[in-house]
């Protein structure tokens, strides 16, 4: 008796049914995952809306004085969205953060700096002639515009400055031993070439990729970095959440020194509960 | 930290009792259905062997069915695509002491647990096709920690390197150590030099250990090297540019000096003076777990997030 043909038929149908069931379960799993992410996105949007309205209690108070210098990185493709940039700066300024560095890789924001500065009364352009400690005492808003040329290229220019100094000192007969340059000398050289701004406390990245896109690396040793998503999806609630997360971080490392922040310090706080409307570019507060 | 590595042989796949499943879409094709703006969650189970079958899209009777070509990737977990794996992953191994404190254990236990985590991650990277792993083992700022703790770490480094030399040779792993090694104990310096020399021709995988390292130090020492070259007439003043500096950075010991992905554990959102120059376009992944708890599932999550996100590079 030949059982080969029925056996083959049996395997064939097992194969077919197995394939169908497998594919169904595969699609089901992915549908569930898709739903989870969809739900998370909706919840995130809802949370952002509630924060904007001041309805979530824990986000009502921000210890803004912990943010002396804020850096904002924007992907160059989105940096031309000047209105979004201005909206973001308005929100940041309304929250009491006055010293801001704007970065995009290709320098598009630098080209728009006049337009941006015009929107803020009394805002001044950050100049390297300001000592960093004097900068932070400025009562008015200061804006710094940087690009790739202020990052790696600036380090190369600073290295050339240091090299010239080294050659001159050798010609004068001084012997520096093995330690020709130091980190502090590099910092000074960066100021000399016009790229020696302060180290930001917090760096917000607006763009699809979670990388800082070449922001002057010398300045972000201990900077907290948060990715905010694309600039076109700018949300006030997301900004508040990012600032809240930074300001409530209990451990702030700075080199070997750990500064533990406690609630008893008399920080300047911003009460978001009074305003139930998001500050807008049209002057509402 | 300890480098005791134990590599298990790849699992054997038993032959199927019937013909392979056909008309099953590629796993990665199906994953592309997910919205690209969301981070993909790791699968519910960890590493599992799976079959990636060709989708020929045709039916037919048993006589007409061709032999389906079966690709069996035994080493990659569900969802990961080998062609999209990062070539160089960097890790800031943070959280060893907090891990120990949370369990009322001495600090030593935290570092030893961290070493076991490193062992696991190295093994996984080797298996999953990552070519270079850089780990931030000891920062130049860490010299300010209590002397007892620093000595403990130095002894752990020394012991780990001694114990695992044979494994590095057997598994074709190249070891490179970057940082200001002059500050290390002389015995450890000698051990490092011997280990680097012994493994320099290994090509399967490279482990870069950053000890007494800081990103600013790396840039400054690159400039110093260029200054010495200028002293010998090899470089003209004014000729220093970004590419010359890149060639002198300590990560130039690697075929892939720039990390594609940086993972930092323990929930901190900063790079803490690690590879400042090299991380300009590196995807950043901040994991909540402490380093001793960072294992296969967490690494898988980081790699899946890396593969899902759109990556852009500067001009």
From TrEMBL, chain A:
<comment type="similarity">
    <text>Belongs to the UPP synthase family.</text>
</comment>
<keyword id="KW-0808">Transferase</keyword>
<dbReference type="InterPro" id="IPR038887">
    <property type="entry name" value="Nus1/NgBR"/>
</dbReference>
<keyword id="KW-1133">Transmembrane helix</keyword>
<keyword id="KW-0812">Transmembrane</keyword>
<feature type="transmembrane region" description="Helical">
    <location>
        <begin position="20"/>
        <end position="40"/>
    </location>
</feature>
<protein>
    <recommendedName>
        <fullName>ditrans,polycis-polyprenyl diphosphate synthase [(2E,6E)-farnesyldiphosphate specific]</fullName>
        <ecNumber>2.5.1.87</ecNumber>
    </recommendedName>
</protein>
<dbReference type="InterPro" id="IPR036424">
    <property type="entry name" value="UPP_synth-like_sf"/>
</dbReference>
<keyword id="KW-0460">Magnesium</keyword>
<keyword id="KW-0472">Membrane</keyword>
<comment type="pathway">
    <text>Protein modification; protein glycosylation.</text>
</comment>
<keyword id="KW-0256">Endoplasmic reticulum</keyword>
Automatic annotation (TrEMBL), chain B:
<dbReference type="InterPro" id="IPR001441">
    <property type="entry name" value="UPP_synth-like"/>
</dbReference>
<feature type="compositionally biased region" description="Acidic residues">
    <location>
        <begin position="62"/>
        <end position="71"/>
    </location>
</feature>
<keyword id="KW-0808">Transferase</keyword>
<comment type="function">
    <text>Catalyzes cis-prenyl chain elongation to produce the polyprenyl backbone of dolichol, a glycosyl carrier-lipid required for the biosynthesis of several classes of glycoprotein.</text>
</comment>
<dbReference type="InterPro" id="IPR018520">
    <property type="entry name" value="UPP_synth-like_CS"/>
</dbReference>
<comment type="pathway">
    <text>Protein modification; protein glycosylation.</text>
</comment>
<dbReference type="InterPro" id="IPR036424">
    <property type="entry name" value="UPP_synth-like_sf"/>
</dbReference>
<feature type="region of interest" description="Disordered">
    <location>
        <begin position="52"/>
        <end position="71"/>
    </location>
</feature>
<dbReference type="Pfam" id="PF01255">
    <property type="entry name" value="Prenyltransf"/>
</dbReference>
<protein>
    <recommendedName>
        <fullName>Alkyl transferase</fullName>
        <ecNumber>2.5.1.-</ecNumber>
    </recommendedName>
</protein>
<comment type="similarity">
    <text>Belongs to the UPP synthase family.</text>
</comment>
């Amino acid at each position: 008796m030949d059982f080969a043909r029925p056996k083959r038929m049996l395997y064939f149908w097992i194969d077919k049914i197995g394939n169908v069931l497998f594919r169904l379960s595969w699609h089901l799993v992915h549908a569930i995952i898709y739903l989870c992410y969809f739900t998370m996105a909706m919840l995130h949007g809802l949370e952002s809306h509630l924060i904007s309205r001041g309805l979530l209690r824990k986000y009502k108070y921000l210890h803004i004085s912990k943010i002396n210098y804020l850096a904002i990185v924007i992907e160059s493709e989105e940096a031309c969205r000047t209105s979004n940039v201005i909206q973001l700066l308005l929100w940041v300024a309304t929250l009491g953060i006055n010293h801001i560095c704007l970065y995009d890789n290709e320098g598009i924001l630098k080209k728009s700096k006049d337009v941006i500065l015009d929107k803020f009364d009394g805002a001044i352009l950050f100049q390297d002639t300001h000592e960093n400690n004097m900068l932070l005492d400025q009562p008015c808003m200061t804006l710094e515009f940087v690009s790739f040329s202020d990052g790696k290229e600036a380090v190369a220019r600073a290295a050339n400055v240091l090299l010239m100094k080294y050659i001159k000192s050798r010609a004068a007969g001084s012997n520096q031993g093995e330690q020709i340059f130091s980190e502090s000398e590099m910092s000074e050289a960066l100021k000399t070439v016009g790229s020696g701004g302060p180290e930001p406390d917090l760096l917000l990245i607006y763009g699809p990729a979670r990388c800082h896109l070449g922001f002057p690396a010398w300045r972000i040793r201990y900077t907290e970095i948060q990715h905010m998503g694309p600039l076109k999806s700018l949300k006030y609630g997301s900004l508040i959440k990012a600032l809240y997360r930074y300001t409530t971080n209990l451990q702030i490392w700075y080199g070997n020194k750990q500064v533990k922040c406690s609630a008893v310090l008399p920080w300047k706080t911003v009460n978001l509960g009074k305003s139930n409307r998001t500050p807008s570019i049209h002057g509402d507060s | 930290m300890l480098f005791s590595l134990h590599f298990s042989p790849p699992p054997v796949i038993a032959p199927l009792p019937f013909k392979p499943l056909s008309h099953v879409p590629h796993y990665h094709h199906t994953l592309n259905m997910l919205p690209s703006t969301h981070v993909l969650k790791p699968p519910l189970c960890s590493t599992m062997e799976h079959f990636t079958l060709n989708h020929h899209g045709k039916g037919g009777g048993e006589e007409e069915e061709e032999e389906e070509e079966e690709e069996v990737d035994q080493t990659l977990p569900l969802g990961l695509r080998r062609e999209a794996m990062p070539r160089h992953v960097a890790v800031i191994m943070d959280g060893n002491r907090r891990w120990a404190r949370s369990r009322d254990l001495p600090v030593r236990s935290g570092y030893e647990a961290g070493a076991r985590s490193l062992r696991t991650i190295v093994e996984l990277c080797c298996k999953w096709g990552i070519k270079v792993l850089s780990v931030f083992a000891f920062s130049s700022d860490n010299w300010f920690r209590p002397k007892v703790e620093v000595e403990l770490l130095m002894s752990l480094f020394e012991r780990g390197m001694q114990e695992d030399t044979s494994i590095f040779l057997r598994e074709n792993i190249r070891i490179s150590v970057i940082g200001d090694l002059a500050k290390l104990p002389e015995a450890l310096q000698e051990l490092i030099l011997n280990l680097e020399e012994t493994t320099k021709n290994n090509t399967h995988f490279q482990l870069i250990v950053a000890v007494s390292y800081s990103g600013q130090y790396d840039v400054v020492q690159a400039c110093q090297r260029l200054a010495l070259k200028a002293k010998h007439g090899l470089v003209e003043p004014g000729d220093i540019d970004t590419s010359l500096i890149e060639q002198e950075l300590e990560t130039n010991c690697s075929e892939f000096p720039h990390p594609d992905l940086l993972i930092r554990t323990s929930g901190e959102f900063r790079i803490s003076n690690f590879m400042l120059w090299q991380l300009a376009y590196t995807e950043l992944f901040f994991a909540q777990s402490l380093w001793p708890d960072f294992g296969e599932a967490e690494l898988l999550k980081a790699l899946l997030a890396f593969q899902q996100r759109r990556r852009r590079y500067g001009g």
